[in-house]
Amino acid sequence: MAIELIVVPYVLGREGVGMGGGPLALQAGAAAALKPERVQRIALSEPFTNEIGACFDLNRQVAHAVAGARERGALPVVLTGNCHTQQAVVAGVGTDRLALVWLDCHADFHTPETTESGFFDGTALSMTVGDCWTGLCGTVAGFAPMPAERVVLAGVRDVEPAERRRLDASDLIELGPGAVARLGTALPPAERTSLHIDVDVLDPAFGLANQYAAPPGISPADLLDAVRAVLTRSQLAAVTLSAYDPAFDRDAGVREAALAALRLIA
After folding, report:
1. Any idea which fold 2-265 has?
2. What mean pLDDT, rounded, does the chain reach?
């Protein structure tokens, strides 16, 4: 399948800083691995005024780019600073016969009512399943909530109490770091899968993905096995790679693991 690379070099609406620099640091390696037919860089359509508004400005454009890639028969691969971009990816590919595999250190399952930090990206998965920010999510063309029973949250270990209560009451399929090897059998029946990789799913012993990474995580070999499990079970609808901050990855171990995962889908 042809591949299109979509680069979103932003973190909470700010361009090129912190995790927003990750997509730019990965772009050349990703292009060499994937040999995309098209590379598109997403930018704000209007000047930054506030984080949430800027994030949804970007999501609206990402959804359009992802939908365009699918219409051209290409696999969209998205490099992004934040996990909330997955809300736009789901909008672009549609939820029909779709499963979502979300590899992450964090649950990202807060809502504005449960978060104590106010960190917007901590609501990313909640947004994607339709539990919060519903008005703004509705401004992203094509968006419909992802059914929770078709979402696998894998590698998660840094979960706050309010998130834990929400996870326990949800229909999400949850696999801790030690259970990622069971991903192949845990995947719900689906013809297509959107694969979301937050690189801080990796154990910091193999390299720090960002300032939020926490042990114990999975190894690069575990990550590759997880990608292979997805590839053997269904067709890829999209791939998203997020939350890489090159300033923390001093030995480039996380970068290499991320690019190795992308090589599997080429």
Report:
1. Arginase; Chain A (3.40.800)
2. 97
